[in-house]
Amino acid sequence: MPSANSSRPSDKNHAPDPYRILEIDRRATDTEIKRAYFQLVRQFPPEKAPEKFQAIRAAYDQLRTPESKALVDLFLIQPPPALPKRRRASYDLSVHPEDLLTLALELAATPMEQDFRS
Predict the structure, then answer these.
(1) Cα dihedral sign, 61-66-67-69
(2) What is the pLDDT of residues 15-69, one digit of tens each?
(3) In sequence order, what DSSP letters do the residues of 35-84 get, joined into one string?
(4) Is residue 74 within 8 Å of residue 66, measured between CB atoms?
(5) Residue 59 CB partners (closer than 8 Å, separation 6+)
(6) What confidence tens digit (pLDDT) does each residue in 39-49 have?
(7) Rounded CA gap, 24 and 13, in Å?
(8) What pTM was computed for the model?
(9) Could you state, in order of their start, the residue ranges of all structural domains in the chain?
(10) Distance between CA 9 and CA 14 in Å, rounded?
(11) CATH number of the 18-72 domain
């Protein structure tokens, strides 16, 4: 069972909540974000807990600048819509004997003197 401090369950459609990882409120100021980051880094140094440190660092990177914080807030309120599932176009690239025969007959019917003039 995930703890209250962990990110959402591993759902591929949702990114982890950086506020939850840093254990801060969504209305946290830049100073509070930075303070929470440094407290967690002291608690989970990269030498002892590399995976937790990477999650903390990624969460801090998402909230570090006002622009990226606004983007995170926007997508936490309303996640982006799923991309439509499109079929890839399929092309028949196989070589058929009839095509080779048609091409050979066309080449044989074409005069080649013009190709070899100097």
Answers:
(1) positive
(2) 688 999 999 988 889 999 999 999 999 999 999 999 999 999 999 999 999 999 9
(3) HHHHHHHHHS-TTT-HHHHHHHHHHHHHHSSHHHHHHHHHHHHSPPPPPP
(4) no
(5) 16, 18, 19, 21, 22, 37
(6) 999 999 999 99
(7) 23
(8) 0.54
(9) 18-72
(10) 9
(11) 1.10.287.110
